[in-house]
What does this fold into?
Amino acid sequence: MSTAIVAPIETKDKALSISIPDSLTEEMRRIDEEIKQFAFHLFQRRGALPGTDFEDWLTAEALLLKPVAVNVEQDEDKVIVRADVPGFTQKDLKVHIEKTL
It folds into this structure.
């Protein structure tokens, strides 16, 4: 398991946003589709009972996804983001800061 540590970022009057590369966006879409299909399978297996679809979605997510631990620390002039992201290095991740309204 690798941990990518993003360097402290100046943040006075700004909000943190993370840029996701296109390859990761496509992977997220693939995973979303896999969750949809599995949730629908669970829904059908339980007899397609009304009101069970949300529980089936959460069950599918819990069985298919692995949580990523993210720690965000902030003080007056910087934000430090630490995340356990297996398969990615610090160079694979980009963090952008944008002003808030």
Notes: The chain has two helices and five strands.
